[in-house]
Design brief:
Largest sheet: 4 strands, antiparallel
Number of strands: 4
Strand content: over 45%
Number of domains: 1
Structural class: mainly beta
Helix content: under 10%
Protein name: DUF2197 domain-containing protein
């Protein structure tokens, strides 16, 4: 099965930094390779996805 490509906007809830990435939707999760924000936050994010 080919996974769907999506555009993902990630906003850090700690410092407000925004990241716009491309990723792949696989079943119930999105893989972008994103690990943590510049402020070392690795858990508290707002994630919004859009189809490419």
């Amino acid at each position: 099965m080919i996974s769907a490509r999506v555009k993902v906007m990630i906003r850090c809830k700690v410092c407000g930094e925004k990241f716009v990435l491309r990723g792949r939707r696989e079943k119930d999760r999105i893989d972008t390779g994103f690990k943590q924000c510049l402020c070392d936050n690795a858990n508290d994010f707002e994630v919004e996805e859009r189809a490419l």
